[in-house]
Amino acid sequence: MIVPEMVDTSRGDAPAPPDEEPRGCLFALSQPPLMIFLAVVGSLLLMAALHDLFLL
User: Fold this and answer.
1) Coil, strand, or helix at residue 7?
2) pLDDT digit string, tens, across residues 23-41
3) C-alpha distances in angstroms, 23 versus 8, 18, 30?
């Protein structure tokens, strides 16, 4: 049976620290496409809730 050799994928030294600060959830929420998507989903949920409350 032939055993394949392990390929060395180590990076050697530790990676250099990034120049910028890590971006978190607030950065993601500041993106216009995400906010438009969330506004559309929220408005659909609001319309469904109002429909259930007043028309059913």
Assistant:
1) coil
2) 777 787 788 899 999 999 9
3) 31, 11, 11
User: Position of tokens 């530790």?
Assistant: 14
Q: If DSSP codes are grouped into helix, strand and coil, which group holds residue 25? A: helix
Only one residue has tokens 């600060």, namely 21
State the amino acid at position 17 in one-letter form. P
First to last CA, the chain: 71
- Cα(39)–Cα(47) distance, integer angstroms: 12
Q: What predicted TM-score, i.e. pTM, was given to this entire model?
A: 0.53
Alpha helix locations (H) across the chain?
A: 25-29, 32-55
Distance of alpha carbon 25 from alpha carbon 34, whole angstroms: 12
